[in-house]
Amino acid sequence: MTRGALIAALLLATPAAAQQRAQPERLGTHGAWTAAKHQEGGQPVCYAFARAASSQGAPGNRVTVTLTVTHRPTGRDQVAVSVGYPLPRSAESVLTVGNAEFRSYAVVGSNAFFQNGAQLIAAFRAGREAVARSPGPPGRQAVSDTFSLSGFTAAYQAISRECPARAR
After folding, report:
1. What pLDDT shows up at residue 1?
2. Which of 3, 21, 38, 136 is most enclosed, with most CB atoms within 10 A?
3. Once rounded to an integer, what is the mean pLDDT over residues 120-129?
4. Domains recognised in the chain with CATH numbers
């Protein structure tokens, strides 16, 4: 899969995009996390997401801010943060869990996409919170969004049951 195709697929994995295509099936709420599933091209796509628990430096008019982990047939453990306002194409967001920092590799619209999904999942399981730092809108300071990781492991297990890894 090309980088452009991967970015497009990841962008479609955000909860807002899923709701525009078809009503997702809720798999459960686990602490701060919600697990859900929808169909794309006849294939199941499962995702878990949390809304920001707090924000600093954020503009007042932004839409819902989410941290999402997606399992799709073309890739697992896809991690994205939707910051709720357009990011410059060259922007870099940093996701911090404990002492570990993960940098975004691509930005599309208001979404930053992160590499090292398996490492991020391990950090989410062991952590208490994840903090996303992103450039602010033009003329504003950087924005920091904090997400609780309470319930992440249960939500991750729910999406992994519904969308198991394919045998190779």
Report:
1. 42
2. 38
3. 96
4. 3-162 (2.60.40.1880)
Angle among Cα 70, 72, 75 to the nearest 5 degrees reads 90
Enter the DSSP assignment of 98: T
Separation of alpha carbons 13 and 47, rounded Å: 8
Is the per-residue pLDDT at 120 higher than 70? Answer: yes
Residue 105 identity (one-letter amino acid): Y
> 43-81, pLDDT tens digit by residue?
899 999 999 999 998 777 788 899 999 999 888 999 999
Contact 47, 70 (CB under 8 A): yes
Q: Phi/psi of residue 67, each to 5°? A: -115, 125
Helix ranges (H only) for 23-147 are: 117-126
Which residue is it, tokens 């878990």? Answer: 48
Cβ neighbours around 130 below 10 Å, total? 26
* Residues 122, 108: Cα–Cα separation, whole Å: 25
The C-alpha angle with vertex 38 and arms to 65 and 17, in degrees rounded to 5, equals 40
pLDDT-wise least confident of 58-72, 105-119, 150-164:
58-72
The SS3 call for residue 126 is helix
